[in-house]
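During the no-cost extension, the postdoctoral fellow (Dr. R.K.) reprocessed legacy sequence entries with the updated structure-token encoder. One reprocessed record is reproduced below for audit purposes.
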Amino acid sequence: MPGGLKQLVSLSYFNGANGIRVNRPTANDAVGPTALFTIAGGLVLVTNLIGIVTTVRTGGAGATQVFSHSTGPTVLCLATITGLATVGTTITVTGDPADALVIGVGTAVANTFPPIQGGMKGSGAGGISQFGLICGVGTITTTISIATTGATRYILTYIPLDDSASVT
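Re-encoded structure tokens follow.
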């Protein structure tokens, strides 16, 4: 069994078949594009992409946030107002590029979060029901439109579709 498939089968028993988890360390929010994850080696199916605010976002009233991919259909979601967020606010991509981000208002207590949507639903483009986002080699970025203070950590889960595909 190829390494990627063997790892995925093992993870499916322990991780609800969401795939391989990649955590991006907490980083200060910044205006403009910020690279979050790099896809290498082939196609992956992104099953979850979520941001969790760890330090209150201030000064960015009306700031929008959008996630994109560096190649192919680049927009992963509609730009959504996410400025002025409390600790614990969740920012979730639905899997349908025509959808806005799903925002769960934070509890203001570290490591406690509101109930949020589960894995990506994908889209029904072309009459075909899809699950998640199929992404090729490239970089997933987030862009915040107005300067804010605060910090967010991001989590992505994926299933490799090519044997050598990975996300870092």
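The helical segments are 3-14. The longest helix spans residues 3-14. The remaining legacy entries will be reprocessed before the final report is submitted.
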